Every structure is written in C-alpha cells, then in structure tokens.
Amino acid sequence: MTDKTPTSRRNFLKGSIAAGGALAATPALAAGDPAITEVQPWANQLGEGVDVAPYGMPSKYEAHVRRRDVPWLTADPVSSVNFTPLHELDGVITPNGLCFERHHGGTADIDPAKYRLMINGLVEKELVFTLQDLKRFPRQNRAYFLECAANSGMEWRGAQLNGCQFTHGMIHNVIYTGVSLRTILEQAGVKTNGKWVMPEGADASAMTRSIPIEKALDDCLVAFAMNGEALRPEQGYPVRLVVPGWEGNMWVKWLRRIEVGDMPWHHREETSKYTDLMANGKARRFTWEMDAKSVITNPSPQAPITHGKGHTIITGVAWSGRGTIKEVHVTTDGGRNWHQARIDGPSWDKSMHRFYYEFDWDGSPLLLQSRAVDSTGYVQPTKNELRAVRGENSIYHNNGIQTWHINEKGEAENVEIS
Hints:
Elements: H1 9-18, H2 27-31, H3 34-37, E1 68-69, E2 82-83, E3 117-121, E4 127-129, H4 131-134, E5 140-147, H5 164-168, E6 171-180, H6 181-188, E7 196-201, E8 211-212, H7 213-216, E9 221-226, E10 229-230, E11 240-242, E12 255-261, E13 276-277, E14 283-284, E15 293-298, E16 310-319, E17 325-331, E18 339-340, E19 342-344, E20 353-361, E21 366-374, H8 383-390, E22 403-406, E23 412-415
GO molecular function, one term: sulfite dehydrogenase activity
Enzyme class: oxidoreductase
Protein name: Sulfite dehydrogenase
C-alpha cells in the first residue's frame, strides 16, 4: 500500500492565512453579506415558547433528512424496507427516527400492558415475563450496528441504485438498553440437550430464526430501549432481540417467545430466504456473521461536492460483525493509491466507526473507494474478489468495496471498476 500524506488541515489553514484569504471566503462576503448586514426575522421577534412541541422534532430546514423506500423493490409495503439516509448523518449513532425499517408483516401495534415473553422447550421450568418483570433484571447498555443481510444486495451483478442511502442504507447503529439473554435463560434453566434457541415475533409474520445456544449465552440482549428511549414501534416495541454482529433478520422484533431445542428448526426465513445461493446451485446456510464493510457517505450520489475546488473532506462509516475496525483506507483514483483515513469517535465492538480523509481537490474526476480492515485482520474485498468466490446468484452478504465516480462538477455516480 502506498501512502501519500494528505495536506493537514493546520497547514491548509496556515497557507490560506498566508495568502491573505479565509477558508470559506466568497465574493458575497467581500461585498457585504445581507445575512450579516441586515437584521434577520429571528433576531427581532420572539420565538415559540417551551412545550410547543412536547416531543422535540428536527428543524423544519432538515425535513429532507428522512428514510426513503424504493417502491419497485417489493410487491407490498407491509413486507418491505426503507433506507437510512447515511449521506445526511455524521458521527456513529443513528437517530431513532431515521433507523431503516424492514417488515415482513407490517408494524405490530402492541399494548405494553398486555405484553408477555414466554420461555419454553428444553428448560427446567417454563416461564412467562411481563415487560415490568424484564425491567427488574440487571440492565446493560451496548452500542451495536444492525445490518440487513440484503444490504447492498441489488449491487451483486453491477451498479444499480444511485445513492448511498439505497446501496448501503439497510443499517443503523444505536445504543440498546436491555437484559442479557443469558440471564433470562438461566432463570428457566437450559437442559443439557438444549443446543439452539428459536425466538419468535408477535407480528403477523410470526418471524422465527434458529440461533445456536453459544451465541444466545454470549452477547445477545432482550432490549426494550434504544438511544435512551423506548423502542419505536417499527423497531420492535416494546421488546426485541439483539444479536450483535449477526444479520438483522435474526434480531426478532416484537419478541413474544423463545423456545429452547436440540437442533435448528429450518423455518421459512432460513430455508427459502437468508441462505446464499452459490454459482454451482448449492446454497450456503447459517452465514450469520456480517463481514467487515465500509462506504463513503460524502461525497456520494445524494451528497455531491458543491464547494468547488479546494479543501475537501471525505467521510464514511465502517463496521464489522467480528469486532472493531482497525483501519480504513481511502483511494481517490480507483485503487491505484491508498491513503489511511482517520477514525474518529468511539471504537466499540460490533459497532459503526466514523472515518475522515481530507485532501485538496483540483477539480479533476475522482474514483472514490474505502476499504475496511477489522480487528481480526480481515480486509474488505473488491466486488470482483467476492464474485470469484461466491458467484452472482446471491442477494445476501455483499460487503464488496463501493465506487463513486466524481465528475468535474462534483456530481457523483455509482459505478464499478473492471
């Protein structure tokens, strides 16, 4: 890997000052900017008082920052998906109202007073918990990403969806509050032949998945809050399962039952779906872990470069289902030269990481890519490297390197490099 050290922001600022200019100087400022010289409405009249919005909302000027769907992807919105606007976000925590939705039978509307969680199967004693019962157990707070196995799935055969929100937006990263699944299972007493658990959702699709007991007793949570507040209905209110680092379909929402068994159940979501069809016609099964992945969120097709030539900040997110992100590399020339990006913010296990790379753009076309390296040493592959092993039949677990082409105007497009 070649590493060409970028111009530091400090040196860039020194150069700007030495040249007698300012970082964001414009002709309007030089001539007298009305936004400064004229009194604005918000400065000469009272604003609204407290409690006008008892539940706070974003500024009206941020109304464009929202989840979006692609109508032609699915036949019906009750079994569909919308996408997190990654290109509008910074940091590592996803606001609750922007976390992508994926439903198989629509959003369940559950009265918390009537909520029950049942534990049955190969246990010493079958139990039923209310929501208040669960809240009496010792609580944990953990930040994890949740990624749908089909995230980037439309890109297997080539560039298709022109927007970071649509290519990579089936992911969010929040702080969950809940109870260790291990604690709950210990209350019931798992029998020696209990090798698997099957969580079941209370929604109309009755979502079920088989999870090995080792994972269930490791880091899984039964969560009732995210980012400090109760789960949103579309995120499984009042209770969902959290399965860190593993594909989102296993994070059963509206959790109503956990059965302990001696073998996997092979239900609908792990036979007809969520397996990986290989080139030879056979399917990989139990491919739970989400491999290391990254994407540049700005600039990208929905977030072009608008300031013209000069100091430019590239930013994006990286994550791995096997641990933390050790390094992120960025290229502006399609992989000929790679530069180490700066990771900023917390580096939590199985959580998103935010990276930045700064350089002086001369206005020439760019081919932007990012490449993540996780704490196990795994390096994010190119799409062609992935296809060489997996073929082109799957829609799941596409963690290939994403390419954005930036033209002279700063406009971005989803492309592939052969």
